[in-house]
Amino acid sequence: MKEQSPNKQKKQKGNEAPNHMSLKNILGGDILANDFFKRQTSLLILIMVLTILYIDNRYTSQQELIEIDRLKKELTDIKYDALTRSSELMEKSRQSRIEEYISTGDSPLETSTNRPYLIKKD
């Protein structure tokens, strides 16, 4: 009778995990029965938690950047609106426009012919 090599004896036992990694072992879940993964379970869980936190942090920062861009656009629109209103006010408050309004309307106001003077308080 032929003697079997030690490798064949290990394969026949079936209780021990195989030394080589194959796609069948990975998909079948045999890789999780490996002693290495049993010892490193807490480290693997920590890595998974940190990965989830990293993804969440990136998502949150992207949402904040979108909000910042929206607020910058809104601020620019408000600045342009304020500039427009300021120029309209400047146009309406010019002396020539006021004199034109007074002369065409039924207002009892007239343009002053006297020079302005300062009133000093004692």
Q: What sort of overall outline do the alpha carbons produce when their principal axes are compared?
A: rod-shaped
The largest sheet, given as strand count, sense and whether it forms a barrel, is:
none
H-E string: HHHHH
Count of extended strands: 0
Low-confidence stretches: none
**What's the pLDDT, averaged over the residues?**
82
Oligomer: single chain
Beta-strand portion reads under 5%
* Number of self-contained structural domains: 1
Number of helices: 5
Work out the radius of gyration. 43 Å
Structural class: mainly alpha
**Helix residue percentage:** 55-70%
> How many angstroms separate the termini?
135 Å
What this model shows, in words?
- It is a single chain.
- With 122 residues, this protein is mainly alpha-helical.
- Helix content is 66%, strand content 0%.
- The longest helix is centred in the middle third of the chain and has 52 residues, at 41-92.
- The mean pLDDT is 82.
Question: How is this fold's topology laid out?
Answer:
Elements: H1 6-13, H2 23-28, H3 35-39, H4 41-92, H5 95-104
Tell me briefly what this model is.
By secondary structure, this protein is mostly helical. It contains 5 helices and no strands. Helices cover 66% and strands 0% of the residues.
